[in-house]
Amino acid sequence: MSFSRTAFILFLIFILSPFYTPAFAISEEEKSFLLMYFKEEEIQVISATRSLKSISRIAENVEVVTKEDIELMNAHTVADVLNKVNGVQINNLGGPSSFAFAFIQGSAFRHVAVFMDGILINLFSDNVADIGMIPVQPVEKIEVIKGPASSVWGSSLGGVINIITKSGGNKEGSRGTLYASYGEQSFHDLRAEIYGKKDKIGYYFYAGRTGADGFRGLPDHSGNGFNDYYLKISHDLSNDGDVELTTFYNVGRRGEGNPGQDFLDDKRVENLFATLSFKTALADGIKLYISARSAMRDWKYNGETISDNSLYTAYHSRDNNYGASAKVTANLPGHALVAGVDYDSGVVHIEDPVWEVSQGSKIRRFAAYVNDTIALGKFSITPGVRYDNDNVIDNFVSPSLGVTYELYKNTLLRAFVSRGFSSPPSPWATDTIPYGYKGNPGLEPEKVWSYQLGVETGVLKYFWLKTAVFHHDISNVINENKEIVGDPVYVYTVENEGKARRQGVEVEIRTLPFFHFTLSAGATFIEARNVTTDETLLDVPKYTYDIGVKYDDEKSLKALLTAHYIWWNSTKAGKYDSFVFDFNASKRIYSREKSEAELFFTVHNIFDGKQHINSIYLNPDRWVEGGLRLKF
Questions:
Q1: Is pLDDT above 70 for 28?
Q2: Rounded Cα gap, residues 442 and 469, in angstroms
Q3: What's the pLDDT at 23?
Q4: Which domains does the chain have, with CATH numbers?
Q5: What is the rounded distance in angstroms from the CA atom of residue 299 to the CA atom of residue 532?
Q6: How many C-beta atoms surround the C-beta of residue 552 within 10 A?
């Protein structure tokens, strides 16, 4: 059945390619309408096809968060930002900079691929992407693809979070920002950035420090602190090209203990990511991009039982990989073609002397992909296909087909069908795993066929409305806790077991400014079932609600009140019976031609709402912070 669907999509790619119309770029009329509800940075996205496109030409369900949005939230990490995105659920094990990971439309967190500057953030050891460690100051915008995106990005059964960083800009001279925030529990967030351009050289540099004693009433056991550094340097070339170097380094520690549960966890994290990229124009409308990357991730995790001072784990994971990518984009009459290749090679080493485990796994991944966005009058058709080969899954082909149709003025219909996969972590396919697990060398990738429909409209006076329905059929579902009967050494293993279905609907609405106020609301409803047993899947969010009220007098005062709710459907004694309200306000107190200063004040969890999936890791109660932001 899957072969016939793949063949059908590939056939459509073949027959549709010869037909096109000359108009493809976003029109001024369309741009004028979109800017009523979106910022300039939101109306074009790169993540859907890995080439810049108008949001009216992409069929995927994509959400964009800009640096202005992040500033208004007074967010500290990417986890804080994504916690306010409809359809994305965040499990945060504490306050700012605590370990946090994302679910999209009820997916497993290891199904979500997170990229920054083209580097996969997910650990090779378990496919987890810790978004709680990524500071927001270097972030230009975040693009979120909701649903499988394997035809472009590879292993991403749940979706993709693409973090796009700031650059030096196009104007001569230097600019910068100083930021300091202090709050309860000895919380502090100190940042400095400087960026600019000198002749053909662009530069951006950021340094920051975030830390706190802990936000769960456990100052001796749940404190954290991170130091972060980010550097980007670019050099303009002729032929509309440039060379660019980026480097991100962060190091820190976290305490995630709980005396009431008789354990103390101490985690030390160190990451170093670097890219070198080259871009040039080959001909009018045709560009070549080549990039190389490296990543080092070093995680140490000591777990101690408080009552008897005994170690129950001394886990140490080290990931090192190198990779390269190349792609060609061709913006031709009626077509926006993208073709590229990705390659990664590396090793992951896990050791835990408590469990007498020491193992290494090699990582080798190769992929080739192609997609085209074809303008056919009011239709845009985007066929795509990607071939992946690695040492765990062997071969996998991921086709996709997207269609958008302008039903009438300011109303757009979207349809998207795709095949995708999630590659299991390499150590899972070896003989042993820490914590008493037995590996499974025969483990296969989880597979999905995804179907999505959506409509966006601005015909309602003063309102923009977006709705989307999704249906994901998943096979080869991995049971991470398969019990082993009769083995004297191992208790659990990992195993492909059965099928699952995730389906649901998303609704979002936002208004035009009215007396300086803008209202927004979103809701996501998810049904997740084990198709084999017809049982509801637990620990998968059933519904989420997001509400926002923004005030902006366009002079000096800005404020944002948000409310967030998730029904986790948890089996882990979680508590999630109330909304979490956050409020942030900022007031400009000084302004000149090239500099300004503003004071800000934030109250988190105003009404002490409980929103945690697990009784061990509680969300913070109400806490307050305030500070100063200086731009020059």
A1: no
A2: 34
A3: 41
A4: 2-631 (2.40.170.20)
A5: 37
A6: 15
Distance from C-alpha of 595 to C-alpha of 177, rounded to nearest angstrom: 9
- State the average pLDDT over residues 72-100: 93
Provide the phi-psi class of 556: left if phi over 0, else alpha when psi is between -120 and 50, else beta: alpha
**Which of 477, 483, 394 lies closest to 438, judged by CA?**
483
Q: Tell how strand 517-530 and strand 499-511 pair up.
A: antiparallel
With a pLDDT cut of 90, the percent of the chain lying above it is 68
Say what the pLDDT of residue 41 is.
Answer: 63
Tell me the pLDDT tens digit for each residue of 31-73.
555 655 566 666 789 999 999 988 888 999 999 999 999 999 9
Q: How far apart are CA 189 and CA 212, in angstroms?
A: 9
Six token digits for residue 550: 């923004």
Confidence (pTM): 0.93
The token pair at 218 is 């456990």
CA angle 575, 581, 586 (to 5 degrees): 150
| Least confident residue range of 205-219, 277-291, 405-419, 577-591 | 205-219
Q: Which residues pair with 514 in a beta bridge?
A: 517
**Which residues of 129-257 form beta strands (DSSP E)?**
139-146, 159-165, 173-183, 187-198, 201-212, 224-237, 241-255
Q: Which two tokens stand for residue 596?
A: 């300004």
Within 8 A by CB and 6+ apart from 194, the residues are 174, 175, 176, 203, 204, 205
Tally of CB atoms within 10 A around 101: 22
Confirm if 500 and 477 have CB atoms less than 8 A apart: yes
Percent helix, strand, coil in the chain, to 5, is 10, 60, 30
Q: What is the pLDDT of residue 18?
A: 42
List 298's β-bridge partners, or say none.
Answer: 270, 318
Q: Give the pLDDT of residue 221.
A: 64
Count the neighbouring beta carbons within 10 Å of the beta carbon of residue 329: 20
Lowest mean pLDDT of 12-21, 477-486, 493-502, 618-627, name the range.
Answer: 12-21
Are 363 and 350 spatial neighbours (Cβ–Cβ below 8 Å)?
no
- pLDDT for position 361: 86
Structure tokens at 167: 């650059």
Those residues with Cβ within 8 angstroms of residue 53's Cβ, 6 or more apart along the chain or in another chain: 44, 45, 46, 336, 373
9, two tokens: 């999509």
User: b/e per residue, 360-387, with b = 16+ CB within 10 A?
Assistant: ebebebebebbbbbbbeeeebbbbbbbb
Q: What DSSP element (H or E) covers 14?
A: helix 2-16
Query: Which 3-state string (H, E, C) describes 11-50?
Result: HHHHHHCCCCCCCCCCCHHHHHHHCCCCCHHHCEECCCCC
Q: Is the pLDDT of residue 20 over 80?
A: no
